[in-house]
Amino acid sequence: MAGEATPLARPWQTSNGLKSSTKGFIVLAVVLVMIVAQTELVATKWEQRQPTSSSRSLFTCPQLGPLNPSKGSKTWLDRFESRDFVNAAVERFSGAIQIPTESFDNVKVVHSTKIQEDNFVRFKDHLLTSFPKIRDTLNLTIINTHSLLFTWQGTSPTTAPLLLMSHMDVVPVLPETLSQWTHPPFSGHIDHPNDWIYGRGSVDTKGTVMASLEAIESLLAVGFTPRATVYVSFGHDEEKGGFAGAKEVSKYMENVLGLGGRVGMVVDEGLDSFTEEEEGGGVSVVTVAVAEKGIATFEVVVETHGGHSSVPPRNTGVGVMAQIVAAVEARPFPVVLSERNPFLRTVVCKDEYAGVVDTIVREGLRGFYEGGREVLAEYLASKSLASRYLNALPEVVTAYIQDRVSVDSSTAEVLDVTWKNILPVAKELGLGFKVINIDEIVYEWVPPAGSNVGNVTITLPLTGLEPSPVSPTDNDAWRVMEGTIHSVYEEAGKKVIVAPGLMNGNTDTKFFWGLSKNIYRFAPVMGGEGYHTVNERASIKGYIKAIKFYHELIRNYDEI
């Protein structure tokens, strides 16, 4: 089956990235706050709603109308409005939250303690118990002890399969924060009157795990069988990089199932996809990330003569490191907003439908090629510096510098520029300087004889990930994604604008680039709060909407 699958016919597009990097302890954040007004979308036949390459120009934000499946009964969605269904679905969601699948730093191949391992086994058992039709119909492959890959076999071996992704692990709850929680973090407390379900993982991201399975269970209940095979992948260590989970799943899908380049669409978690624009006349801007920044981490070690703090040398190790950090901060990468950057699409969409116009953004876009590009980029970017100084005179001071790499750049460029910015500090202070890449000395400077007061050693890269490819926004896969969002989330008096965007962080999709060119990151559970912090909680209504999203996405994709 899998070996015969062929990709969808699609015109590939190569547009990407806002060039900014987090330099050392420097955080370069892209901030855009706009108010968006109501706009009218014309719903016509699907073929008539497809934007052409010329209509989807750089500085316009054309919108598709809602996409509804033509096959099956319109009443299939009615069950999601039933009080009985909502209560039962939320109870199953609560049960998932109650299992503390925390992901700790000690994760290597599997979770290191018996309790941690048992929790992932319990979570798998909860899924199989909660969804008996999935248990009896879909094939489950367990990969590297805890990651799960469900296969819903389609009837057409030549139709490119769909992959839905999420992860089961959650960030740990710090013991010192327990008293700050309104309800215990693993209680899965349900508060129907206030539309909340509490607990670690309710937002990130057991809601997508459970919602995707609720959707499939519901489709199985009405006898739906997909043409395209549907894969559902849940990793067990995404919060620590996904190397034991999603990476192994991707290798299995590519090497064992033969799906390299053959998956029609991949949908994984996003971050803050919904932006409410209350003053804009009831319009929400929904961001679907079509790319992710890269990442590069390297180590800087300063070795100096120690001493007592009462008689400090002229340049202590901490002082030298402070100067290095200052040098990195003083020469940041220029903020560049290029045509290749998906974030520009987000800016354009928010501006086009703005109820309250930001004149700097509007004029920057209008004069983009006459200097507006630079003004706009600087306006949208903000910088912050955080550092920590030690109250000691150590002989060795170590800093780990992490850069977020723009889609306009590469890890090699970022690392090269950074160490060359640090070199003048070492020379000025008479410190030996060495750059090492694995076992190779990339560059070395030795001070004049007798003047060496220490050494600076840079090891690169400790970790590195190139910026992701940019997924297209002018093909069938994108039309299914955007059209389904319009269909599910738009309501009377509430319009939704779907904008391509850029994700600053990384998801498990970084391991799946070889399977598909259509990778979209979207957070379907709207209205959550407390991401990675105390009182994490998801909206019950938002969770039910997410179930509808997956339900309709599968049906719409099946009609490509």
Structure description:
A hairpin with a 5-residue loop joins β11 (274-277) and β12 (283-292). The chain has 2 domains: 1-63 and 276-502, no CATH class; 71-270 and 507-560, Zn peptidases (Aminopeptidase, 3-Layer(aba) Sandwich). It has a 6-stranded mixed beta sheet with strand order 4-5-9-6-10-22. Strands 17-13-20-18-19 form a 5-stranded mixed beta sheet, with helices on one face. A 3-stranded antiparallel beta sheet has the order 7-8-23. It is globular and about 85 Å long. It has helices at 46-49, 83-97, 114-130, 132-137, 206-221, 246-256, 317-330, 342-352, 359-366, 372-380, 411-429, 476-489, 540-557, and strands at 18-19, 26-30, 35-36, 139-143, 147-152, 162-167, 190-191, 196-198, 230-235, 265-268, 274-277, 283-292, 294-304, 336-337, 354-356, 381-385, 396-405, 432-437, 440-445, 454-465, 495-503, 519-521, 537-539. The longest helix has 19 residues, at 411-429. The protein has 560 residues and is an alpha+beta fold. It has 13 helices and 23 strands.
Instruction: List the strand order in the largest sheet.
Output: 4-5-9-6-10-22
The total domain count is 2
Q: Tell the overall outline.
A: globular
Q: How many angstroms separate the termini? A: 19 Å
Mean of pLDDT:
84
Radius of gyration: 25 Å
Percent range for helical residues?
Answer: 25-40%
Number of extended strands: 23
Keywords:
2 domains, Aminopeptidase, five-stranded mixed beta sheet, 560 residues, disordered N terminus, alpha+beta, 23 strands, globular, 13 helices
Brief account:
The chain is an alpha+beta fold.
